[in-house]
Amino acid sequence: MVRFHHSAAQNIFEAEIVIIGVPDESKSHAIRKGASKGPDIIRHASNKSEFFERDGKIIPICPLLGKIDNKHIFDYGNIQKENLYELVSNLVSNNKIPIVIGGDHSITSIVLQAIGNIHGKIGLFYFDAHPDFVSSTTNYYGSVLTDSFQWIDFAKSMLIGTRAAEPEELDNATKVGLEVISPLNITESGISQIADRIKSKNYSNRKYISIDLDCIDPAYAPGVSLPSPCGLSSIDLVYLIKLAISSGILGIDLVELSPDFDFNNITADLAARILLESIASINIYANRT
Question: In the CATH hierarchy, which fold is given to the domain comprising 12-288?
Answer without folding.
Answer: Arginase; Chain A (3.40.800)
